[in-house]
Each structure stands twice: as structure tokens, then as C-alpha cells.
């Protein structure tokens, strides 16, 4: 019996040494292989979303009576369209140069859609531009993750594969959000990012504000009165998927009224943290706008020039909520946002003051 136990101990020790040596020599390769398989599955999932996004874009263009040949050339021309950011080594005037490039890019999209779908309404043309932009973003995500996967395989580096595998859940989440945005724009539905314009539109209708005037590109302003205060409602032009130039609109109004502007209130969607409720409304100070910089700079420059207090009201959303079709939980939050705006006006201004309320966001499907 003792002999058998001794033999078993030797066998166990030898097996342990063999397994230990295998893990020591090949463990990293085995882990790389497992991560690579997981990464491949994630990249295939993103590729499917990108392909489906292209198909939705093609259907959307067909509904605008665009020729099939023009549809294919559109996707070929724009899927890898890029913008080169201006030099920032000498920061003087960098925002002006960036704004110019962004305007050139937007103008390029608009004129191309107008050329291939001249009979479509301006609203449908605007939504088609957003469909194209969403499809481009989705394809870009796929190209980047594919690049990291191929580099990991080519170099057999665990670090390339590890970085990709660890970040894939968030990247897939973002890709799904872009895919939902493409679908929403193709159908002309409101998206979560439109909460700012929607809430401001509700407030303007409630007090029966006047007819909006175009104050900047794709940007309108309407005046109204609330509890003895003069209000200006600034937001992007409705129904079509526009974000407008709210910073430019605010700058024009501030320069027009100069020191008569007592306060500016900006309303926008903001990304929530995990565990937080979607549609929760919070307040702060500053320019609530997520543009690359030029529009926010115009707002901040205007308020500093005339020493105007600026408030921010944020509606918390996940990235899926912000880019996907607007959910009921967000629509239900609109009265809360309007109430926040009213409270800010009543508590921080007096009768006779003039206040600008800016609804920031995409107005797809929002009148």
C-alpha cells in the first residue's frame, strides 16, 4: 500500500512539472490564442453592423430616387472621407481654422446630396446627410478594430491583442449606437441627442412664442414672454437632421442686444455613468454643447465679453440612448426640463430681463 501511494505521488509530481513547464513555455501563446479568437468574434460582429448600416443607407438613398450607380459611387466616395485637423503648434486662430474646415466638410455633404437627390425635400436631404455620416462612422470603427486585430496576428504580440480584447465590449457598444443612429436617421425619427431642441420647443409652444427666424446656418431664434421676462429660444432648424450653429446664433443675439442679455441657459443631452438613470435632469454652469470647439468658444467669448451668467441643464443618457431613437423615458423627462428652465428664470432673473435659452442637439424628426 505504501508503495502504491509513493508511486502515485511521483506520478502527480511529474504531471505537475509537465503542466507547469507547458504553461511557462506556452501559456502566453495560449492566452494570445484565446484572446485572438474572442477579438475575431467581436470584429465580425462589428463588420456585420457596418454591412447592415451600408444596406440601410442604400435603401434610404433609393427612397430618395437616387440612381443605383450614384448610390454606389456615394458610398465609395464618402466611406473613407476624412478631415485633416488644422495645425495647433501655433494656437492663434486654430478654432477659426477648424470651423472653416468643418464648414467645408458640411458644405461638401450638402451639395453632394442636393446633386444626387434634387427632388427630395430639404428635411429628407438633411436626414440623408446624417445617414451617410453615421454609415461612415460605423465603417471607420470597423476599419480600426480590424487593423488592431491584423496587427496582433501579424506581430504575434500579446499586447496588441490584449488591448483590443479588453476594449471590445465598449467598442461594440459604440458601434451598436452608431447603427441605431443610421436606422433612426433613415426613418426620420427623433434621437436622444435631440432632447435639448425638443424641450426648448415645448417651452416655446407653451408660452406661444413668435414665429422663428433664421439667425445662422440651419439655426433659428424665436422670441416670447414669460413672467415679465423676454425670452429668445435658439435651436437648430427642425424636422431635418440639423445641429445648426447655436454658438453663432447666440453670438448674433448677444451682439444685437449687447448688455440687455441678463442670462443664457443651455440645454443639452449628456452621457450618464453606468448605474445612473436615463432621463435624469441635472443643472450646472457653463456652455452645454459637445461640438469640436468653435461653437462653444463663441458662446464663452460672448458671455465673457458682456459678463453674462450662463447656466447648463443636462439630460443624462447612455450613448445608445443619445444616438438611437428617442425612448419614452427621455420623452417623459421633457416636462422636468421645462420646469428646470422656468425655475432658473424665476430664481435668477427679474422682470424686464432678456434671457437666451438654447436647445443643443440634432433636430431629426423634431419640429
Supply database-style keywords:
367 residues, alpha/beta, Rossmann fold, seven-stranded mixed sheet, 11 helices, 7 strands, globular
Task: Summarize it.
This protein has 367 residues and is of the alpha/beta class.
Structure description:
With 367 residues, this protein is an alpha/beta fold. The chain has two domains: 13-187, no CATH class; 192-359, Rossmann fold (3-Layer(aba) Sandwich). It has helices at residues 2-63, 68-78, 94-116, 122-155, 158-187, 195-206, 246-257, 294-306, 319-323, 328-331, 334-348, and strands at residues 213-216, 219-226, 229-236, 261-271, 281-285, 310-317, 354-359. The chain has a seven-stranded mixed sheet with strand order 1-2-3-7-4-6-5. Strand 2 and strand 3 (229-236) form a beta hairpin. Helix 1 (2-63) packs across helix 2 (68-78), helix 1 runs antiparallel to helix 4 and helix 3 (94-116) packs across helix 4. The mean pLDDT is 87.
Amino acid at each position: 500500500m505504501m508503495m502504491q501511494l509513493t508511486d502515485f505521488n511521483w506520478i502527480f509530481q511529474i504531471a505537475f512539472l509537465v503542466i507547469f513547464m507547458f504553461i511557462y513555455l506556452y501559456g502566453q501563446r495560449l492566452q494570445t490564442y484565446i484572446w485572438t479568437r474572442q477579438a475575431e468574434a467581436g470584429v465580425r460582429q462589428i463588420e456585420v453592423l457596418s454591412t447592415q448600416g451600408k444596406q440601410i443607407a442604400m435603401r434610404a438613398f433609393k427612397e430618395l430616387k437616387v440612381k443605383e450607380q450614384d448610390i454606389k459611387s456615394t458610398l465609395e466616395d464618402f466611406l473613407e472621407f476624412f478631415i485633416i485637423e488644422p495645425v495647433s503648434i501655433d494656437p492663434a486662430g486654430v478654432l477659426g481654422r477648424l470651423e472653416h474646415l468643418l464648414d467645408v466638410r458640411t458644405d461638401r455633404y450638402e451639395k453632394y446630396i442636393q446633386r444626387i437627390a434634387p427632388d427630395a425635400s430639404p428635411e429628407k436631404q438633411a436626414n440623408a446627410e446624417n445617414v451617410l455620416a453615421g454609415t461612415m462612422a460605423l465603417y471607420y470603427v470597423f476599419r480600426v478594430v480590424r487593423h488592431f486585430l491584423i496587427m496582433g496576428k501579424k506581430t504575434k504580440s500579446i499586447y496588441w491583442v490584449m488591448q483590443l480584447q479588453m476594449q471590445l465590449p465598449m467598442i461594440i457598444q459604440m458601434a451598436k449606437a452608431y447603427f441605431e443612429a443610421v436606422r433612426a436617421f433613415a426613418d426620420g425619427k427623433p434621437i436622444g441627442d435631440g432632447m435639448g431642441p425638443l424641450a426648448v420647443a415645448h417651452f416655446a409652444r407653451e408660452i406661444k412664442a413668435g414665429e422663428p427666424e433664421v439667425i445662422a446656418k440651419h439655426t433659428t431664434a424665436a422670441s416670447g414672454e414669460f413672467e415679465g421676462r423676454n425670452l429668445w429660444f435658439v435651436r437648430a432648424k427642425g424636422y431635418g437632421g440639423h445641429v445648426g450653429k447655436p454658438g453663432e446664433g447666440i453670438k448674433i443675439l448677444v451682439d444685437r442686444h449687447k448688455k440687455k442679455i441678463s442670462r443664457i441657459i443651455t440645454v443639452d443631452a449628456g452621457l450618464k455613468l453606468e448605474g445612473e438613470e436615463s432621463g435624469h435632469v441635472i443643472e450646472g454652469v457653463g456652455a452645454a454643447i459637445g461640438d469640436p470647439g468653435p461653437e462653444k468658444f463663441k458662446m464663452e467669448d460672448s458671455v465673457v465679453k458682456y459678463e453674462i451668467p450662463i447656466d447648463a441643464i443636462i439630460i443624462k443618457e447612455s450613448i445608445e440612448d443619445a444616438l438611437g431613437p428617442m425612448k419614452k423615458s427621455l420623452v417623459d423627462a421633457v416636462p422636468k426640463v421645462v420646469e428646470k428652465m422656468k425655475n432658473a428664470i424665476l430664481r435668477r432673473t427679474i422682470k424686464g430681463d432678456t434671457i437666451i435659452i438654447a436647445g443643443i442637439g440634432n433636430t431629426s424628426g423634431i419640429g
